[in-house]
Amino acid sequence: NPYPSSFNWSQLDLAHLSHRAFYRFNMEEDQFETYIDGLGDAHPLIQPLDVFWVYAAQNEQMDFLNADRIHASEFQENLNVRDHILKLKVDSKNGSDHTYISFNPSSSPDFEYDKDALKMMPHRNNRPQIFTYGGEKELGINQLPDTTMMDLSVKCASNGTFTISIDSNMGYDYLMLEDLIWNKRINLLEESYTFDYFTSDGNYPFKLYFSDWVLQPVEEGDIDIYYYPESIVVRSRKLIKQADIIFYDLAGKAVLSFTENDFFKFEKAISLPTGHYIVQVRTANVVKNTKVLIRR
Fold it and tell me: What is the sign of the dihedral through the CA atoms of 214, 217, 220 and 223?
């Protein structure tokens, strides 16, 4: 490509492209840069002689045509209007890393190839990495519907002291970070959070809360309990830090019990004889009993 022009990624034919996020490796920063759907650190234009990667979920053929090229001066990004975009960063003496979070009403909570970007991490890197999750996938860019809470993690190839802070914020007026190892809560709108990381921690776990009411004490009306199709399901409007779930037969005898931690919803397959049972969910603040029918 000898001409002073660039690809406009948003103008490519995406009919057969399973994931249009692209990645560059920044040699100076020793980091992957990512771009998708108007978000990310990488520049959206692919310059002549540029080196980049396209991630695809399966084997496929992609054609880059001359018609896909435009001059950089003609580039104009067409984005869906979004009023909630957050860029978090983690800092260390060896450098920093970022992750993007955006509320997008057309997104789902799961990983989507056209809206989310997988986190690409060097295998041997002393720089900490920060990311969220789409299902079980680690994401560098995560678009999801308006939510009250999400999981966040940091990991690194070496021990260190790291600091999480807000790099930029559009539209979020409540951001509470919870360290799940030390049970600390930090208002990121007011201060950053510094912690010690050890490689034995693996993916250091955090939760990020976007609403204050979700951390208020759980009340009976917040909890729903039902059995379907072969699992007990417990949903809560607010975070349940710990709950004992106990099954009683109709004679009042406890026949099954277990404990769950840190959830809004969980499902657990139950193997009990067919019949009616009383399911009790007991938290530090409330006890709720529901009659369920277990069937085969």
Answer: positive
Determine the pLDDT at residue 5. 45
The whole-angstrom distance between residue 254's C-alpha and the CA centroid of its chain comes to: 37
Average per-residue pLDDT for the chain: 84
Nearest Cα to 130, choosing from 183, 54, 30, 206? 206
- Residues, the chain, total? 296
Alpha helices in the chain (DSSP H): none
**272-291 per-position pLDDT tens digit:** 999 999 999 999 889 999 99
**Residue given tokens 């299902």 in the structure block:** 135
| In contact, 95 and 32? CB cutoff 8 Å | no
**DSSP 3-state assignment of 17?**
coil
Whether residue 89 is predicted with pLDDT greater than 60 in this model: the reply is: yes
Residue 128 φ/ψ, nearest 5 degrees: -65, 150
CB 165, CB 89: distance < 8 Å: yes
Cα 192 to Cα 9: distance, rounded to the nearest angstrom: 35
3-state secondary structure of 129: strand
Query: How far is Cα 8 from Cα 162, in angstroms, rounded to an integer?
Result: 37
Residues with Cβ within 8 Å of 1's Cβ and at least 6 positions away in sequence, in order, are 48, 49, 69
For 163, the enclosing helix (H) or strand (E) is strand 160-170
Distance from C-alpha of 95 to C-alpha of 121, rounded to nearest angstrom: 14
pLDDT tens sequence across 256-272 = 999 998 888 889 999 99
CA pair distance 87, 102, nearest whole angstrom: 9
* Confidence category of residue 67, pLDDT binned at 50, 70, 90: low
Among the ranges 26-40, 158-172, 215-229, which has the highest mean pLDDT value? Answer: 158-172
Written as six digits, the tokens of 286 are 């409330």
The C-alpha atoms of residue 70 and residue 145 are separated, in whole angstroms, by: 33
CB atoms within 10 A of CB 236: 21
